[in-house]
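Dig into what follows:
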Amino acid sequence: MTFDPEGVTSLIFLIHSSSSSNYSGNRGRYQDRVEFIFDNVSLGQTFTIGRPVQAVVGVAAELEILRPTAPYEPPKPRVREPEGQVIEGERPSALAKINWVVTLPEAGVPDYIPSALERGVRTEQIQRVQRILLPRVLNEETYGKHWKTLLWVEEFQMKSVQFNYAPVLSNLTMLNLELTCNSTI
């Protein structure tokens, strides 16, 4: 195919399914990359244009049923109440055989970690951690501080996610459900 350098040329690709309406193939979301390779014959050069492509394969009626009915709203932040009486579980018998020399102190998250993460959206929090808490350079001298900080950040985030979703998770029970779709396709 030859293109007019002064004009605009559009390439349109249509992909049609050749299967019947009771298609049971590979449904889902797919991502890939399409690459167009062009040869400039007059200059003897080749160049490539690549773009990401996405496809959703499925039955239109099923996709319509699965469409969200309202925008997602994350759970509202709540004030954490102190734990009540904690009932200790049974200690594994293997631990009784270990002769501990000293008891290690509790290694909690330092106070400056929650203060850096409690406000702002996720991108602001990441920028704040990178700008204020992490060392500027990662080398043999700053290695320990860098990874300790990341572990503390991860622990704080884990506890806040557990806390925010505790009411939802406590209401879940194991059920044996058969999923059915009450629509005609």
User: Anything to note?
Assistant: The CA atoms of residues 119 and 141 lie 30 Å apart. Residues 108-170 form one domain. The first strand starts at residue 28 and ends at 40.
